[in-house]
Structure formats: structure tokens, C-alpha cells
Amino acid sequence: MGRGRKRRNFRGRNSSGGNDSFTPYHMEQIETYLLAYLKKDTETNDFYVKSFTIGKQAFPKLELDDGVYITLPDGLSNKQRRIVHEICSYVGLYHGSIDVEGQASSLPSDHPNSPDLCDNKGTIKKRACVIARVNDAFGPLYSSGRLAMPSPQLPVSVRELKPWFYRQHSRYEISQSTTVELVGDVWNADLHVKKTAKKMRATLITLVDYPDKCLNDATATSREVKSHDDLSTVPSISDHPMLFVDSVGKLEQCSQEISGAKEFAFDLEMHNPSPYYGMVCLLQLATIEKDYVIDVFAPGVWGSVGRCLRKAFEDSSVVKVGHAIGSMDVPALHRDFGIFVVNAFDTYEAARILRMEKVGLAALCEYYKLESSEEYAKLKSQYQRCDWRKRPLSEPMIQYGRYDVRYLIHLRQLLIRDLSVSYCGMYAPNGLVQVENGRDEQQTEYEAAVVDSDDVNRSIETGSVIEESNVVSDLLIQALVKSQKNCLRFWAHKEEAWMKNDQIVSAIRRNKWTKLHSRLFEDLVKWRYKIAISEEIMPQIACPTSLLISVARGRPTCESSLRRINPFLPELLEDEKCNYIEELLVLVRASFEDDYLQDEKDQCPSSSKTAFYVPLFVGCGIALAVTVTAALALRRSRR
Fold first, then answer.
1. Residue pair 493/183 in contact by the 8 Å Cβ criterion
2. pLDDT by residue (tens digit) across 130-185?
3. DSSP secondary structure string, 360-412?
4. What are the beta bridge partners of residue 59?
5. How many CB atoms lie within 10 A of CB 176?
6. What is the pLDDT at residue 224?
7. Is beta strand 124-132 parallel, antiparallel or unpaired with respect to 94-101?
8. Which of 512, 511, 523, 416 is CA-nearest to residue 467?
9. Contact criterion met (CB below 8 Å) for 402 and 284
10. Is pLDDT above 70 for 393?
11. DSSP per residue, 330-349
């Protein structure tokens, strides 16, 4: 029965009418279609005479005019468009995607494979691939904004955005050779980076073992949090002062103002296309009195963030409040600015310990009755996953950044209240589950430090006030321990598992990836590491992995061929002074020599290993045949 169900599901996925994926036969047809367009082949087929159907999609007839681009069917799914882009890169055509108006597809608009997009007016829009022989054919699309560049133009050079983790600090501090290198798949960081991380790790481990040290004057000890308090009484963002930091002078002002605070909230907006690399684009801070939005791309700000803010973040007497800080916030601060977060309170971990149904920041604000929670949720849905590298920042983007930090300090006080009282079973707000001694991890030495429940009862009976100085519940200790453990999640360079890359897997399935492609790709990866070490940046920022794979497949031998694969090359490759493009092309040309040597090896095997094993195999076969024949003859004679 199980097999039958799987078989029926399999048939269902492949009978979706072209909305899932192309078959290998369809991919071959598309490649033939695109090659005919590139080479202007009007004799082999009739692609220039009439439209052609591939996988139930009507592809338009081709044009001979180089100044005209061709729009492919708008019924292709996201996955199908990706395949078309890969084949265009392999063939050597300029390509992109644009919005087009059309009829709604058979799939719902929220389906992951649906090509439809719906704007605020309810108009159905779709995405379609466009192809051209020359990049100038896309001129009208670029000028109208319908076809965007693959990545926005940063306001500063990537050379001014060097991550702290990848810098060669020893080069500037003492006269010695660089200690940055690649050992296998592990980035051997600078000695200064290693020593600093080791020192801060020891400090954080102490807080993990002794979480009571995190309960200081920065907590809600001096504030009385009543059982009926919530976010409805907190002033709105429009009534709260804000400083937009776009210069080094304003950053220094921000540093001075938060230096006197006993607690502050923080959050980051980042560009994280993959788990292997990323970039901080915006840094938000907030105290009880003021909000700060720091544009790290502003002139001189990136290189000054660590110098101005490191002391405040590493001060154990100051509590840093964040939400889900262990996912990317802590690693990104360490990677880009050399900032270590010491003594943090993670509202996400606190909500999980309280077993709330929804633990997202917008959901917490709604739960604790924030009046503008709907506006916050709307901004989050619109800007949480937008490209934060774009400049200038719009007012709604800044507004969303403030929402991410504005209420964290107040949420911390409310969560501490609920962690303290829900432990004793005396009070649990609506939606929370009362927990007693529930633990997910092994206790540390101080994790089980709990006060007598009679003290809590007396505190609740006299005025329904929870004072944290009188209550250190087991649940609160758990939240503190998990928060400090999240601060230990430093950035560590990780290398992608190349053979699991979607582009390579797709090429292997279509028999478009051989050992020669793998060898060239490995050479390109090593070349990229040399550039990254020299420029003190992340390897993927020097040259994206997707571009290296396309180069390994297409093997362009000149710059014009390279720009057919991607007309918008990374900034460092565009720098004519460094001559990086020529270095890449030299590696590609050398791969053709490998092809020639491989062909000669296949035609005239000269390897001693091959010459030895072939005669040995033949000889053993002959000897075995003779032995069997003799045995049979001896058996007959005995009969």
C-alpha cells in the first residue's frame, strides 16, 4: 500500500502540466532552441518561422535582429525559469527576468511554484525570462526599471567594507608575514582574531556557569512590574526621539549616549543569501530614552562601528536585549565588526521557556497588547526579507528597523515577571502554560538556584508586585543561561559542500558536468581564495559561487564571452588595475589543455598502471579457461 501511494504521488507531480520542472528531453529542446538563436541557425530547424511548444509552453519564434530581445513564456514556474537561466549561461546568452501582465496560472498565487504575482490593486502579474545576443538589447528594460541589475550598487566600495574576521590585523600591528590562509576547508584566521575570540569565550563561559551575575542593576530590579502591566502604556515610535547615524561624528555621539545606559536593545538587518556568507546592512540600538538607526554603509561608519560600540557590547554590567540573537545577530557582529555580546537577554528564548504558541517578535508585541502591532506586522511582512543593501533607505524601512528594537527592553521586563511568577504556579497570563522545573538541557552549577516559594507568595500577596531582587526563579535562570550560550555563537568560516549545490546537481543530472568541469571549478575556487586573502574580504563577495559554476560550465576564453554569462561582474573583477578577469580567463584556457591531454590519454594509454593491469587480466582469463578445460577432460577420463 505504501508503494502504491508513493507511485500515485509521483505520477501526480509529473502530470502537473509543466508547473513542476522540465524533463531532460525538454532541457535538450530548450538548449537546441537557444543555440539556434545564438548562432542564427535558420537552416537546421524552423524556430525562426513559427513558435515552438516545449513542455506545454509555447516558445516564441526567434528574431535575427541583435537589437531586439525575446520574451520567453510567462507560464514558467520559478524552478523552470532557473533552469532556463542556467542553460542561457551555459550557451552564452544574455538573460534576465521581468514582470509581465498575463492571465492567472492554474496554481494558487501563494504556491511556491506559481509564477503569478499580485500587486495591491489586485492585478495579476507574472515573471518571464528575456534573452538577447547582446547586452545593449536590454537597454529599454534597464532604463524603465523593468530589468534590474543582479545586485544593487553599494554606496561604498567593498574594499571599505572589510569584515573584522577576515582582516589581517597582524599586518598593521607588527611587521610580520600574514597569518591568514586556507587550510583545507577551514579559514585559518589572523592570530589577533583567534586570541580575542579565546579571551571572550572564557568570559562568556563564566556567565553561563554563573548566570546570577547577569542579574545586576541593569535588570528590572529597581522597577516594580505589576501583574496587569503591558505594552499599551509604552509611548509609540512617533512620540519617541530617534537619531539616524550616517556619519562618524553621529556614531561617536551614539556611543557616548549609550555608555551611561544600564541596558540597551540591539538588532541587525543583513544581506544573507546563504549560510556561508553575509553582510550587515543596518544596525539598530535603543535605550529607554532614545532609538538609534546606524547606516553602516555611510562614509567611514563601517570601520568605526567596532571602535565606538565594542566597549558597550562587551561590558558585563550592561544588559543587551535582543530577539533570537543566536541565529545571525551574534555571529554577524563578531564577523563584521569584531564585537562580542556579553550579558544578553534573548526574548525569544524566554518566550520558548514560557511555551508561548508564537515566539516571533511581532507576535510577542501583539500578545502584550502593543497598540500598533498590526502596523508592525505589516512592515515586517514587507521588509523583513527585502534587500537591505539598497540605498537610500526609505522611511518605512527605517520605521521597521525601529520597531525591531523599540519595545525589547519593555518586553524583557514583562517576560522576567512572567518567568518568575509562572514558575511558582501563582500567576500565568492568558496563553501561557504553567511550568514547573521543566528543563531542556543539563543544569549548570547555578541553574538550579531557586528561592523559597513562600517569598514569592508573600511578594504577590502584598500589592501584586513582582520585584526581581526577591525572585530568581528556575525558569529565569534557564532563560539567562540560554541567552549567554547564544552569545557564544561566534562566526566560523564554513565552506559550501560543492557537490550539493543546486546548479552542479542540475548539470550532473543532465550530463553537463564532467571531471574536467570539476577540476576547473576547484582551480577557480583556489583562485578566489587568493583574491579574498589579498583583499581581506569574504571569498563569496570577491566572486559569487554561482558565477564560478557558470564559468566552469561555459568556459569563456575572452571577456566578451564572460559577460555573456553575466553582464554585471563583481566589483573587484571590474577593477582594471588588478587584472583579475585575465587571471580567471587564463585558468579557463588552461582547462582546454587538460581536455587535449585527456583525449590523448584515452586514445593512447601510456600509463604504467593501465599497461600492467590489462595484460594481467587477459592472462588470468586465459589461464582460468585452460584450467577449467583440463579439469573437465580429467573428469571424463575417470568415467
1. no
2. 999 887 888 888 777 777 655 667 889 999 999 999 988 755 443 334 444 544 44
3. SHHHHHHHTT-TTHHHHHHHHHHHTTS-TT-SSPPHHHHHHHHHHHHTHHHHH
4. 52
5. 9
6. 60
7. antiparallel
8. 416
9. yes
10. yes
11. HHHHHHHH-----SEEEHHH
The residue among 625 and 369 whose pLDDT is bigger is 369
What whole-number distance in Å separates Cα of residue 193 and Cα of residue 165?
6
Cα distance between residue 531 and residue 588, in whole Å: 17
Q: What are phi and psi of 87, to 5 degrees?
A: -70, -35
Look at residues 256, 269, 267, 246 and name the one whose alpha carbon lies nearest to residue 311: 256
Q: Rounded mean pLDDT of 322-342? A: 96
Q: Which residue has the higher pLDDT, 45 or 578?
A: 578
Helix (H), strand (E) at residue 322: strand 319-322
Interacting residues of 192 by C-beta distance below 8 A, sequence separation 6+ = 169, 170, 173
Q: Which three cell numbers stand for residue 374?
A: 498590526
Rounded to an integer, the average pLDDT of 459-467 is 40
Are 484 and 320 in contact, with CB atoms under 8 Å apart? no
Q: Which three cell numbers stand for residue 615?
A: 595484460
Please say whether the beta carbons of 15 and 55 come within 8 A.
Answer: no
Backbone angles phi, psi at 451, to 5 degrees: -85, 165
Which residue carries 565552506 as its cell? 495
CB 126 within 8 A of CB 74: yes
**How far is residue 403's CA from residue 68's CA, in Å, rounded to a whole number?**
46
Q: What region, left, alpha or beta, does residue 431 occupy, with left being phi > 0 and alpha being psi -120 to 50 degrees?
A: left
The residue assigned the cell 582547462 is 591
pLDDT digit string, tens, across residues 54-84: 888 999 999 888 888 999 998 898 888 888 8
Give the count of alpha carbons within 13 A of 179, CB side only.
16
Tens-place pLDDT, residues 176-215? 344 445 444 445 667 888 889 999 999 999 999 999 888 7
Asked if residues 416 and 468 have their Cβ atoms less than 8 Å apart, the reply is: yes
Helix (H, G, I), strand (E, B) or coil at 103: coil
For residue 125, what pLDDT band results from cuts at 50, 70 and 90?
low
Cell 541565529, residue? 327
Contact criterion met (CB below 8 Å) for 356 and 362: no
pLDDT at 11 over 70: no
629 confidence band (pLDDT: 50, 70, 90): low
Instruction: Choose among 539, 526, 541: nearest CA to 571.
Output: 541
Q: Is residue 189 within 8 Å of residue 493, measured between CB atoms?
A: yes
pLDDT at 287: 96
Residues 586/558, Cβ–Cβ less than 8 Å? no
Read off the C-alpha cell for 150.
Answer: 543582479
* pTM as predicted: 0.71
Judge contact between 346 and 416, C-beta under 8 A: no
* Single-letter residue type at 451: V
Angle at 228 between CA 225 and CA 230, to 5 degrees: 75
Residue 213, all three cell numbers? 551575575
CB 548 within 8 A of CB 525: yes
Whether 37 has a pLDDT exceeding 80, the answer reads yes
Residue 159 C-alpha cell reads as 574594499
Calpha distance 464→232 (Å, rounded): 19
Q: Taking the chain, what is the end-to-end CA distance rounded to the nearest angstrom?
A: 57
